[in-house]
């Protein structure tokens, strides 16, 4: 009975992971959510192999409680940890690093620190908290959902100068994954940072400005992927990522790959 913990499991990509993994009755799926008041879609799955626990990756104590509850559910082990929860870009995402308004330069520091705190420190705390269970598992895999926005080559080739704080946090977490892989390869624990591709997870209609910013981003990305046609759905992305997870070996542990298992980010 393979066991999975998924952070940020109440919507979007996280919910799609729960939906697809729990479709196999033998899988034990632990869905971690920051707010247990927003789990209607998880509950609507109505699957006995899905266990919903509260945990915020920015709150170490809540992670420790969730790990203890997970141990009770699984008998003290964990096969796969999927670090999906993250802080997403805010309304200043379309600004370059030198484009913050005069007199509001502190906002740049605030954004950098906030995104790093959640997307790097929060992920590291999550991994450290659940590693004792992973060490006792059978599959021994730790996955971090990253972003192609954190890839240096994509940034330079496309001229993608915006989304600085978010991109920097994702580049940093990719290095964290490599550090864990370097440490735990001798123990047979495999790590992977993976980009889900450009995925449509919008839960509301975009504003005119958001649509314009998205068009500008896509124009830049099409410099490196001229045949790209549309964003993936969450389920399409997850189906592809699960195949990459299955193919993870000691040889590519610590890598940063796309949903295609290579460096094609779109």
Automatic annotation (TrEMBL):
<dbReference type="InterPro" id="IPR052184">
    <property type="entry name" value="SDR_enzymes"/>
</dbReference>
<dbReference type="Pfam" id="PF00106">
    <property type="entry name" value="adh_short"/>
</dbReference>
<dbReference type="GO" id="GO:0016616">
    <property type="term" value="F:oxidoreductase activity, acting on the CH-OH group of donors, NAD or NADP as acceptor"/>
</dbReference>
<protein>
    <recommendedName>
        <fullName>NAD(P)-binding protein</fullName>
    </recommendedName>
</protein>
<dbReference type="InterPro" id="IPR002347">
    <property type="entry name" value="SDR_fam"/>
</dbReference>
<dbReference type="InterPro" id="IPR036291">
    <property type="entry name" value="NAD(P)-bd_dom_sf"/>
</dbReference>
């Amino acid at each position: 009975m393979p066991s999975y913990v998924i952070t940020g499991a109440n919507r979007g990509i996280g919910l799609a992971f729960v939906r697809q993994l729990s479709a196999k009755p033998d899988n034990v799926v632990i869905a971690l959510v920051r707010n247990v008041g927003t789990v209607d879609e998880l509950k609507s799955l109505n699957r006995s192999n899905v266990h919903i626990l509260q945990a915020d990756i920015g709150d170490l104590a809540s992670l420790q409680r969730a790990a203890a509850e997970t141990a009770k559910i699984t008998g003290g082990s964990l096969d796969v940890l999927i670090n999906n929860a993250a802080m997403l870009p805010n309304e200043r995402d379309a600004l370059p690093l030198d484009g913050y308004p005069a007199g509001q330069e502190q906002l740049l520091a605030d954004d950098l620190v906030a995104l790093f705190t959640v997307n790097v420190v929060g992920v590291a705390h999550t991994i450290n908290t659940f590693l004792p269970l992973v060490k006792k598992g059978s599959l021994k895999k730790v996955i971090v959902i990253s972003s192609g926005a954190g890839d240096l080559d994509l940034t330079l080739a496309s001229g993608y100068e915006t989304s600085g704080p978010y991109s920097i946090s994702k580049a940093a977490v990719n290095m964290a994954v490599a550090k864990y892989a370097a440490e735990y390869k001798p123990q047979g624990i495999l790590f992977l940072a993976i980009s889900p591709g450009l995925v449509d997870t919008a839960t509301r209609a975009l504003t005119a400005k958001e649509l314009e910013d998205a068009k500008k981003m896509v124009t830049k990305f099409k410099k490196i992927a001229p045949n790209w046609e549309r964003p993936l759905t969450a389920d399409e992305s997850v189906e592809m990522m699960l195949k990459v997870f299955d193919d993870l070996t000691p040889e590519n542990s610590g890598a940063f790959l796309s949903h295609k298992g290579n460096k094609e980010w779109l």
